[in-house]
Amino acid sequence: MSLRDFGPNELMFLLLATRWTILLALIAFAGGGLIGLVVAAIRVAPARPLRWLAAGYIQFFMGTPILIQLFMAYYGSSFLGYRPDPWAAAAVTFSLNGGAFFGEIFRGAIEAIPKGQWEAATALGFRFVRTLRLVIIPQAVRLMLPPTVGFMVQIVKTTSIASLIGLTELARAATQVNTVTFQPVLVFGTVSIIYFALCWPLSLYASYLERRFATGMTKKAETPLVMSAA
Amino acid sequence: MQTALQFGPILVHLDLLLRGLEKTVQLAALSILFGTAIGVLGSVGRGFGPRFVSWLIAAYVELIRNTPLLIQLYFVFFSLPLFGFKLSSNTAAVVALSIHLGAYATEILRAGIEAIPEGQIEAAKSLGLSRYRIIRHVVLVPAARAVYPSLSAQFILQIMGTSIVGAIAAEELTAVANNLVMQTFRSFEVYIIIAIIYFVLVQAASLLFAGIGKLVFRWRV
Questions:
Q1: What is the pTM of this model?
Q2: pLDDT one-digit tens code per residue, A171-197
Q3: Across the interface, do B191 and A64 touch by the CB < 8 Å criterion?
Q4: CB distance B67 to A157 below 8 Å
């Protein structure tokens, strides 16, 4: 007893909703990447209180479900007197959450660079930020790259939980179509294929990078095992 | 802007919060149990099964790892009843979460199995060990020991992942939180408390998994 069947219009509706998923993922990737760089730099900074602060940040975002973080941002904004906006809440949450994970990924890569490089830079008179920017990070990039691409897959998948605060991206579009057609196999099957089409190339690319950079590597970067909570 | 955080109206519902926590632990424990079982079978099938089985398992792993848990949850919850399986929300959640973790556990254990030197297996064969004993003692146990840190990290993520099953009206901690929001209208405070509960749960689980690892894999390589 459905209102209508799953047809080309419904498929188009899902495909159009996909652009919001992609946009949200791009925001999360850009925001999370930038925050992650700062967090990683602070994590290896000489000042100890700063390191603790960054560690606490990471602990919170990696130790609580991202859905709860999203609810906190969404309802927290109304507590502070703003009108809750799903897009703002999702952008902020995914960026901050991504920042914690990227921070750990980047830190792992930075710490895999031999101590001698730091000492050599110090001997040349480089300060912390210059050392990091000119000596360490250029070498750490190839260690960072595979897990970074891998985490992009998690970001795309995680955007689906933004549907739970009412943001109409792919997952929410799917439940809407399912409600009117009640053809769950078709609807969620199609949506799975769309997500798969977004994620699989990234997954393949990540494992390609891993294989390519694995050769000639003496020390493997320690990276956190990442799967989104969604 | 509201003046101050008020936790009182929420903390009077401590019994509800604890019941939600209990459900969350239950969901996580069951799905970790089933998911690990799937992982053991999947990784052995992947490494030692016929090519067709191996290929099928690879497809399962890739499909699950490249689609969101939320969609998997919806798929199980809405589709299975059409095939005659009437599932409660909580059962559907356990099924979806187990299938989800199963794919990751398969992949993690497979990596461990692939790292076992071929010589070990050949040595075991030359000693006349049966196929079952080789897979169990020479391959699976050392592989599990090697990848246990990754596996327990995945378990932690699974615990946090249970938070989204409220989307199909399963009654765990996050769903309790959503109900409390409607009762007390103190949404921000509710989620602060829930975040603290999850945080403590995750820290406790980390300690527990580390302890279990020490206990189960206590001998040295």
A1: 0.90
A2: 999 999 999 998 999 999 999 999 999
A3: no
A4: yes
